[in-house]
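Hey team,

Filing this mostly as a record. A colleague (T.K.) asked me to run one chain through the structure pipeline before their review meeting, and I want the input and output archived in the tracker in case anyone asks later how it was produced. No errors, nothing strange. Just documentation.

Input sequence:
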Amino acid sequence: MACYDEEIFGPAMVIVRVETLDEAIKLTNANKYGNGVAIFTTSGGNARKLQHEIEAGQIGINLPVPVPLPMFSFTGNKRSMWGSNNFYGKGALNFHTQFKTITSRWKEDTDAA
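Output structure:
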């Protein structure tokens, strides 16, 4: 679909179903864009694997992808926006480094003793 092959900005969510986390990471990393990705999981191991292996610049764990704000550099990678030429914060100076912004939210385990 065009919404997967082209980078769109707006109120849209693209969902592609795969069988495994490895397959999802491979599919996502194969895309020429690298703006953002989100995972909703109860597995800390899966969240950590995704944040280390994914090539997207903005990663949401148990919440949507964060919106670029002045306290975060815009961290779109690959052909997303300006790639490494960020327009906020230190990212504007360190354009040879590939940044990732990772935000996460975990529910407290109220049943644990």
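Quick notes for T.K.: The chain has three helices and five strands. The longest helix spans residues 21-30.
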